[in-house]
Amino acid sequence: MKLIARMALRDGMIIGEDVYSYQNILIVKEGTIVNRQLIDKLARYSIMCVAIKDSADTVLSTQDKLEQSTVFKQFQHTYKMNLIFFKQMMTEFFAGKSPIHTTFLLKIHDTIKSHIKYNEQLFQMLSCIKLEETDLTYAHCLNGALISHVFGSWLLLSEDDIKTLTLCGFLYDIGKLKLPDSLVWKRDNLNNFEYNWLKTHTTLGYDLLKNENLNASIIKCTLEHHERCDGSGYPNNLKASEIDRFSKYIAIVDDYLEMTSYKNINTRTLTTDDIINYFKEQGVNKYDATTLQIILKGISQL
Fold first, then answer.
1. Bridge partners of 239?
2. For the chain, domain boundaries
3. Least confident range of 117-126, 215-224, 260-269
4. Fewer CB within 10 Å of terminal CB in the chain, N or C?
């Protein structure tokens, strides 16, 4: 919201807060659309400036409307129920009571996605979900699957490859479930010890899945999703030709999720342009160039 001089008002602007006369009489309500008659009324009451909603206020208003909608409430209910199912499956897996059931994971994805009519709506819905801090890493895995499926469709992957990429999304960061939430979701900068500790999630995840009956690319993704095409990644400084193609896809998914994560949302919400500019600044040297170009085109249309 910003203050605008009466003389600078233009048709179509939206009043940001109630306007009162000097006698404390309400003369214009918040949300009123500016037109010539309204400007003349302000002049009659000698109002020199008023608060006008800017684009950020409009976005907030749109988000508030979405959160109050029946469509979102149904989506949130389904999302949270399936998050519980995912947590239960992972708890049993960690306890050695059950293997990873890929069919069950894909069913979780499809059930949540059934509430979504188009990709833009999914991204809007996910930005509105409110979670307990103890659920954040599980939700990160769930969101990884949902976003991976969308990115796979943008890349025109085969149906089988999209399923594989969706499963990679569920499981690539499984190692973080073995680390403290206070480390994974720390909003302040990590010190060297903390950063090196966090980096172990790649090997932790690989060790958890290496003996499971899973597609080899899913297992590799746990270890390779922080590798970069120019060799600057970790844990093994692999270069482009050495990195599994699904790991290259997930590297972009992971960085997208990091920029839109809970810890960033609670500091500053990044715009679509912010996200695109970050990837462009990182350059094609770190990501597969063709993949990045296609995904950025998709993100730009959200």
1. 230
2. 2-53, 60-300
3. 260-269
4. C
Q: Which residues are CB-contacts of 102 (< 8 A; sequence separation ≥ 6)?
A: 167, 214
CATH no. of 60-300: 1.10.3210.10
Closest CA to 201 of 218, 221, 216, 187: 221
- CA–centroid distance for 272 within its chain: 11
pTM: 0.80
**Cα dihedral 174, 180, 182, 186 sign:** negative
Q: Do 60-300 and 2-53 fall under one CATH topology? A: no
Q: Does domain 2-53 have CATH number 3.30.1490.190?
A: no
| Residue 58 pLDDT | 62
